[in-house]
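hey team, just a heads up i'm posting the complex here instead of the shared drive bc the drive is being weird again. everything in one block, sequence lines first with there labels, then the predicted structure for the whole assembly after. its two chains so it's a bit long, scroll down
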Amino acid sequence: MHQQIIDLLSAYHDEELSAAQRAQVEAHLRTCAACREQLAQVQALSTLLTAYSIEVGSTKEFWKRLAPRLPASKRITSPAPARIRQQPRQPWVFLPPLGLLLSRAMVQAVMFVSLAFYGVYSLGLLPAWMDRALNAIVSLPDSLTRSITLTLLPHVLPSPLPSLVDYTIGRTPSALSALAGFVAPSLVYAVVAGVIAFLYLAWTILWWRNLRSAPASNSS
Amino acid sequence: MSNWAGLAGLTDEELIARSKGGDKEAFGELVSRYHGRVQATAYRFCSDPHLAEDIAQETFIKIWRNLSRFRPGNFRSWMYRIAINTAIDYIRRTRPTVDIEDLPLAASGDNPEGAVLRLEHAQAIRRAVLRLPPHSRAALILREYESLSYKEIAVALDIPLGTVMSRLNYARNRLRADLASLLEETHAPTNH
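-- predicted structure starts here --
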């Protein structure tokens, strides 16, 4: 109990205790001379410390030296000391670029597999069961076939672009439609990959800019 | 003291808002309000008048650069946080030239003997404060000289309230031991 009160004397002197703690300390002080003496010493120390005020130079001179050192725009930031620059850890901020990278890698992988498949198919090296499977896909309703075409096997199955070309020039099949059949899915994938790359780049730039403009947060 | 007509009547919050927009005069008024406190805090922390001025300058430059990041709240705590962190960084980087003999004490009306005694006391206090570990020293300075509440100290030093209490207890106990003879001179024990 006595030690507990001693620990509270400093805060009692500073008037930083709750009403209940204050009452507890005051009750103890009425019966304990040692604690009263200790409190008196804390008060005397406070008086002693503040008895000697110091002088600092004139504010006018200080400002004269400071003003030219202030950057014209506060947007120009320089590294603040590490403890001020410190930001709360937010591992989730890495999820968007990670997701974008993974999506990009997946698109690339599908593209690669699709091209390889297309090569095998063109050379007539597909096993019979795969041929049957392809025929089954082609016999599906048109819209479903096209979705599969654009997602899984863009280089093998008919895609919307060659059909449009055939319709426009009225010949089936033509060298042009064959070329379009190859180019269309590639274009789709190139656009998707480009959008992903753009999003990723934009995020990286924003993240880097944010990191550079170090916040001196007053959060507590 | 205000250097800019028309700004003296503005609150800190208004000056901060103007400074955020790039108004250097508003910032100058803010500096004139707090320069003395920041430099005195830095001086008490390192006991080197030249270093204290450098720390104060650096503190206000950081405040200016980062004002846009300041969220409405306790400006004083934020300012002291930057000042103390800057002082700690400076002391780590530079070895302060502690010139206890050349204390810039405020003038008093003492006679020469009284002035010498006064200087000796001030030097003894300065040495004792400097012997404290930096974090306890910071808590003590913010409480005793800048009259910050425990909550403000907790924000300024980025520590819990309990740690503020324990650091102040530690600092005061050490000072009471180090300055025992001086306290005896100036304080007659109470015996109720």
